[in-house]
Here is the input.
Amino acid sequence: MGHGHGHGSAADAVSASGRYVRRLAMAFGVLLAFFVLEAVVGYLSSSLALLSDAGHMLTDVLGVGMALAAISAARRPARGGRTFGLYRMEVLAALANAVLLFGVAAYILYEAIGRFQDPPEVAGLPMMLTAAAGLVANLVAFALLREGADTSLNVRGAYLEVLADTLGSVGVLVGGVLTTAFGWYLVDPIIAVAVGLFVLPRTFKLAKQALRILVQQAPEGVDVQQMREDLNRLPSVTEVHDLHVWTLTSGMEVASAHLTTGSRADHGGVLIAAQRLLSERYHIDHATLQVEPAECARRCRELTW
Here is the structure.
């Protein structure tokens, strides 16, 4: 029997996570300071749009904080019973981030309904000035998180929140101008609803991606049946069973399989060919492969799961 492991993706993911820690810490500090500012001014000025923006900024603060904690935890070496380390902490943080966004968006939509019937007077100038400061904070955080958004689901969650919050700050700023110039108090709940509706579909997508990883579903774009057929076409391979493909965390796809061969097969050659196939065609560099004769395969078929 032969076993093969490739660790390219894992090493790359850990190295990349190290680059994100400082950026996440800087974004966390900026967002925390401006969340406090927006929440205080929003409360004093009775601006739901500003409070909406502060609420989304709170999820940014919590999301970036969880991302920072999760990436720091994931970088620790595996020990004890944690044979895969704490990589899944990033995915759990992304899911918690999505839940927070759902809650904030639902609350803002609920509050906005009441304000459409009886819009309160809103202090437009403080609302406008604070939104402008919040926009600057969001743009700084946006720039800090942009690099990691394509490679880490966790960072992507924080990035999407900051993106939504940036647009929300623009909306609040416009609302402040209209309120100050024309006294259009209805523009405040309208902008709050618009921000909530913008955030919800992106939050749903983030939650879906996190749940897909947590239930160990095959990565998007990977056809497991096609992979089975490709492995089965390798020279000397007569059967492929116990094939599993899943994502450990962002950028770390993993596979395991049993490859049954003829009695005279070169197990080492089969193992190398299978590793090359998974790496080049499916971009899976971490694969645990068991190459076994037919008599061992019968034992696998006796298992009930």
Notes: The mean pLDDT is 77. The chain has two domains: 12-214, 224-302. Residues 8-45 form the longest helix (38 residues). The chain is about 70% helix and 10% strand.
